[in-house]
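Priority: medium. Attachment 1 of 2:
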């Protein structure tokens, strides 16, 4: 099939590449000319594991190409997938300007019947708005489909190739047939295509993200109780996760969720509820808990040093909002760094892939280390923010030798408490006893 993907971010580029990989002819459009030029030279513009080989293979095959020219891409394609940003507006609702402006442009240039597919995360009713916008500018027939994306950064290619479900919101039988064919190659592990109406599809995405965020915030609140009551949240996690009704995933206490999706989607769902005159009280609590979690972690560091905080040197392990990505959007590390800098703390950080993006954002306000051990040189504490695999089983002797003060604040519960005790570290983690 001939497909145009508009927006080549984490979702658009992975979608375009994976659709090309299964035999479609894909042309990706982006407004960012420098990014398009990079991709035309076969350079993946961000870090996403497993993407590069598929990306290069399909460029070489001639099944994946890039342009800034929307008209050309729209006219050559039957299916037009929107993978555009939907950032939060000032009032917390999703900003639909990227989606609706593009819908307008598509309406103006389309030359034939098109299927316009919304993969961006958008509030209920957006398919109707896109339909109205296109219809206002075109006499050609078209369908609008809501096809929210569930891939996770860091494992995006695998998620796209082996989805746990694909949601397609359409009431058109003709579109259903085309989508059954389009997604058939990804159903080899079982039928996972669910058709529903557009509104339900739009809301399913918010329901999924808000539910997952709720699981995280629940465990973070539980961690707070554990700290006061002398229990260990890791044991609670194992104890409840064995129950299939609860499930093992997303039960890790930490410093709160970040990233480009959960914070904005939870907020947008709360906004949707208030707009229709209701409340989504659980979601409101989830947001409050999430924010409080990073503040509590900061307080642990501040309280440990007390009046001596100013001038202390801290090593940060991890900057990205989660491992296996260079994405810094709403990363708790940025909040912690900004707050500690205000207190006069000196910071040196190490992250396997997110340092370039951090440098673009923070410049030389902090130092950047070549590796995780160099980062510790003469530091008064190590602060662990992202659970990259290479932080999980480090050389503790080397760490002890490099740190000028053997204190670790672990926002990801990476280490065993007994081991920390044996090694003589001060070790303050989440929802567990403080080792001192
Ligand atoms: P992103 O910010 O990484 O990428 C968006 C891309 O769109 C950028 O390359 C930007 O230059 C381009 N763009 C902006 N305006 C454009 C225009 N008018 N024409 C063409 N290109 C334009 O975004 P993302 O993370 O890929 O997210 C896209 C959507 O998918 C959002 O709605 C997001 O909520 C949703 N989503 C994201 C994820 C994720 O993990 N990142 C997962 C599921 C869903």
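Attachment 2 of 2:
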């Amino acid at each position: 099939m001939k497909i145009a993907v508009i927006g080549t971010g984490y979702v658009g580029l992975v979608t375009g590449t994976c659709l090309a990989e299964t035999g479609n002819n894909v042309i990706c459009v982006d407004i960012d000319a420098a990014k398009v030029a990079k991709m035309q030279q076969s350079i993946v513009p961000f870090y996403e594991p497993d993407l590069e080989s598929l990306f290069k293979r399909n460029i070489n095959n001639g099944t994946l190409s890039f342009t800034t020219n929307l008209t050309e891409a729209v006219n050559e394609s039957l299916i037009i997938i929107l993978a555009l940003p939907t950032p939060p507006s000032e009032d917390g609702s999703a900003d639909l300007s990227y989606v609706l402006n593009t819908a307008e442009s598509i309406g103006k240039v389309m030359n034939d019947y098109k299927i316009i597919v919304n993969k961006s995360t958008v509030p209920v009713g957006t398919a109707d708005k896109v339909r109205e916008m296109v219809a206002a500018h075109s006499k050609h027939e078209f369908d609008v489909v809501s096809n929210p994306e569930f891939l996770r950064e860091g494992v995006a290619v695998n998620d796209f190739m082996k989805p746990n479900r694909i949601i397609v919101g359409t009431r058109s039988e003709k579109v259903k047939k085309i989508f059954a064919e389009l997604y058939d190659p990804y159903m080899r592990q079982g039928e996972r295509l669910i058709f529903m109406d557009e509104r339900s599809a739009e809301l399913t995405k918010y329901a999924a993200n808000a539910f997952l965020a709720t699981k995280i915030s629940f465990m973070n609140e539980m961690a707070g109780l554990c700290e006061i009551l002398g229990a260990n949240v890791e044991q609670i996690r194992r104890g409840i996760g064995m129950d299939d009704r609860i499930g093992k995933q997303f039960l890790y206490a930490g410093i709160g969720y970040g990233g480009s999706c959960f914070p904005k989607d939870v907020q947008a769902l709360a906004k949707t509820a208030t707009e229709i005159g209701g409340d989504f009280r659980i979601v409101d609590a989830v947001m409050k808990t999430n924010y409080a979690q990073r503040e509590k972690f900061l307080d642990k560091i501040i309280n440990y040093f007390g009046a001596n905080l100013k001038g202390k040197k801290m090593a940060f392990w991890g900057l990205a909002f989660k491992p296996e990505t260079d994405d810094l959007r709403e990363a708790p590390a940025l909040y912690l760094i900004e707050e500690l800098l205000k207190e006069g703390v000196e910071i040196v950080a190490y992250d396997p892939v997110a340092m370039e993006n951090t440098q673009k954002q923070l410049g030389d306000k902090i130092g950047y280390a070549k590796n995780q051990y160099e980062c510790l040189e003469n530091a008064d504490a190590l602060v662990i923010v992202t659970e990259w695999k290479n932080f999980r089983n480090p050389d503790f002797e080397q760490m002890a030798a490099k740190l000028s003060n053997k204190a670790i604040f672990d926002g990801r519960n990476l280490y065993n408490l007994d081991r920390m005790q044996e090694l003589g570290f001060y070790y303050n983690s989440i929802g567990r006893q403080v080792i001192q």
